[in-house]
Ribonuclease H-like domain-containing protein (Cohnella boryungensis), 451 residues
Amino acid sequence: MSGLRDRLNRLLAGSGASSAPPVSDNSERKTGEAEVEQKRTDSAQSGRRNELHEAFCRIGVQELENDSGPFLLRRNVYSLPYRHGKYELGRLLDCADRLHPIAVRQNKQSERIDPRRMLFLDTETTGLGVGAGNVPFMIGFGYYANEAFVVEQTLIRHPGEERAMLTYLLDHMKDKTHLVSYNGRTFDWPVLANRFILNGWRSNGREPGHLDFLHPSRALWKNTLPSCRLGMVEGARLGIHRVEDVPGSMAPTLYFQYLSDGNPAHLHGVYSHNEKDILTLAALAVHFGLLLSDAAAMGTIAENEELFRTAGWLELHGEQLAAEQLFDQLAERTDESEADNSWRLALAARYKRAGRFDRALPQWRTFAESTELAVAPRIEAHLELAMYYEHRDKQLPIALTYAERALELALRRGRLTSDKAKREAERAALQHRIARLRDKASRERQAYRYD
């Protein structure tokens, strides 16, 4: 038996498994002495764990331990009022309930939104997928507590600390009704859900609702911003400008570099980037909350396309009066020099459905004039005007003029398309319309002559 113990001790020593006490061959050792020795070992290990690298301590990182083991935590408290970009974060306390229509659309049903029961979530992971191999090495989250906005960031130094980190996150999720994120519904939360399962947890109730601000951001800005990345949105619309920011795509590389040489200084930029993402989520929540509260008070939106999309977004979320005000404000704009004014066709179609041709006509005329100079002109406005003057205003010569011009533009554009069947069908339809208008105009002239 003692030979087996010797071999186990040699194997443990060779593998560097110093955390396991050596196997003793003293079968007469007293139980009390063993307990004292174990306590000494545990104390020594705890002391080694608490000796964090100076680069961690410099940015306020501490080691915490719960029933699942140790992990690292950094905590920053922003006393209200605190301004991030152009918004004071405390304003969400007054307008968070206005985010309810967004939550309903994303979750089909949703509890009342209480700002103190929202958890602003952003993860940094070892990869880009949502599969089991992608590990969140840092989980950042923010929440309102008392008169402050608190940002906490957990970090694991090795896979053995993951369960403790997830346990800590679950403790903070217990009283939360909504997770606020940017693409969190399709990335951050599925990644975390996988890690919960792999660590032995099973769902025992309904998960928190989502407020994923990527979707409203795309609805408003996909045609007016180069991209809808969070960094682009915050700089262009929230007045937040980061200096020397570490791109999120670099986070895995910097984490692996830290694992390689043990220097936490590599992670300073990752901590800063993650923290600012969480603060930006809160500022974005304020932006959408205020927009749904009083769009007119948000100030004039300079770009016509964005104003149109904002009005449509408000209408989609039940703010009919605010939407109508923005649509009417847009209808008064006369800028004809913009490169893309396709929004005019959509606005005119909306007014047409409502029977407000006095609003639709100026939009069709403006678009028709601007498309005349295009390389690949569109004929929708010409056709709408031809139909209006034929069936409503009963001015056949004007209707014929627009139809003939539409055919000229279609033939010019047809040279640029390879879809011969579609080109021929469009040409035939226009020629048929022109022939019919000419016939109607001729019969009308003859009837007028006999009268």
The longest strand covers residues 69-79. Residues 1-49 have pLDDT under 50 and may be disordered.
